[in-house]
Amino acid sequence: MTAPATPLTHRELWDAWSRLWNGDFAIADTILSRTMRVNIPQHGMPDPGTLHDGPSVAAWIAAFRSSFDDDARITGELGPFIVGDYAIGRWVFEGTWQGGRPAAATAPAGTPVTFRGVDILRFEDGRIAEYWLSDDQLDLYAQLGVLGDTGAAAQGADPAAELRERLAELPEDAGRKLLLQQVLDAAAEATESAELRTANGDASFLALGVNSLAAVVLGERLGELTGVPLAPTTVFDQPTPRVLADHLWTRLTATADGASVSLAAALARLEAAAAELTGDGADVSLRAELVTRLGALLGRLTPAPAGATAGKPIESTSAEELLAYLDTRLRPLGDAG
Asked: How do residues 38-63 score in pLDDT, each as one tens digit?
């Protein structure tokens, strides 16, 4: 590790720290302690234990800057205020995002961003020995579309409607598994941890690295995917991915009148099909088959139509009688859904 010829003052170390963040990686080994301690937010950050000296910290900063244009800059906004062996200052970052991290971003490459943060440095033996970071990551993520699926909205896609259709066609076990995978995928995006996609869903969100910021991102993402509005505390009210998936299953598979979503979807499709068989060019044989099968079903589910002879078998009921009865039971197509 190269030592400076003349020990740097605290202010000079602060200014050198700013240059390091602006791409002067060669000075990292000169200004950072060999046993540096880094204290950073959990979400979207590496393990702080891997950041302990000049080369490792420089590599981390270089990875962050790789997602932005070469002109991206951090500039001082307030301070630094130096007290004893500590310095604190507020900065602003301005740059153009080029793609990459965060992986869940939906903003197009070329999106300009601005966000702010506060750095605290502790100096020891003429070097930076410890670092604390507090930044407005939520603001950055909002600008990059992590908190809103702008791509799907621009294409007119409705992921919630697509998910409901898939659930309507699946048995319960398969539907619950699908929702669990949706929760795990969203958690992986929120924490930028691909390992979560293959988790079993029984560990707590806290154990999986979902902190308060990640919980906000996760709730927003699941709300878009499912169409179910989720409070920011939902992730902690439903403490594991499996419990949250079961909660979503309950919310998604019940209509206002308590019927299952599968039954409601099936009835809506039936109404649409029945409406196509009422015109002059309708398939008469198919219509007759539908009338017969619906009549048998209605006979099992409801009392006999008013005015019908008690005990009259369904086979002896005319098509006109059944159609008239269906008109009283099935809503017009325009009211379906």
From this structure: 998 876 678 888 898 999 999 999 98
